[in-house]
Write a structure and sequence with these properties.
- The protein is of the alpha+beta class.
- The protein has 2 domains: about 90 residues, no CATH class; about 70 residues, no CATH class.
- The protein has 5 helices and 4 strands.
- The chain has a 4-stranded antiparallel sheet, covered by helices on one side.
- It starts with 7 loop residues before the first strand and ends with a strand.
């Protein structure tokens, strides 16, 4: 079994409390490449799995600024190339540019965040090795799964399987790549 290529071990639990306890013990044991799959959101799992990636937030912020700059720049450029002095109005009245600048700020911020999220999550993903696990279909019904990935520095096929079994997992399955 040690020679078999692996993507991860997938351990099945019957309740969210069992899963949370398993994540805590896996963290304490030194495992870092963890993931969890649940049929509904479970409070506190994100913090336990240490999801702290803020790249989507910054992509949305950068997109919003780009949209604002494009909106204001487009209108200033238009007024510079086609100046109209009507009723003593200033040539560059920033208050008149607010609507277009606001719309492009929202549009670009939302597009950068949505497309950035898809890219960073590597979506659309037509195949994910965990999906081939025989009991994984229960993750959308009534089971809770803890995944320890093979790229974890502490991952050892025999020891990791034994550790997951000791956590009280109903089943432990190797997901091939």
């Amino acid at each position: 079994m040690a020679d078999a290529p692996a993507f991860a071990f997938l351990a099945e639990f019957e309740s969210p409390e069992d899963l949370i306890e398993a994540i805590k013990r896996a963290r304490a044991e030194g495992y870092r490449a963890l993931d969890a799959f649940t049929p509904f959101p479970v409070e506190g799992i994100g913090e336990l799995l240490e999801f702290r990636d803020e790249r989507v937030l910054w992509l949305g912020f950068a997109g919003a600024w780009l949209g604002f700059v494009i909106g204001v720049g487009m209108q200033i450029g238009t007024n510079f190339n086609y100046p109209l002095n009507i009723g003593g109005r200033p040539l560059y009245a920033l208050s008149a540019f607010a609507v277009i600048a606001f719309e492009l700020t929202i549009l670009f911020g939302a597009l950068f965040a949505a497309l950035g999220m898809l890219y960073l999550n590597r979506l659309p993903r037509l195949h994910y090795p965990i999906f081939s696990a025989s009991r994984f279909h229960l993750a959308s019904k009534d089971r809770f799964f803890l995944c320890i990935k093979a790229n974890d520095p502490k991952f050892d096929p025999e020891e990791t399987r034994q550790f997951l079994s000791e956590l009280g997992a109903k089943s432990v399955e190797l997901a091939p790549p």
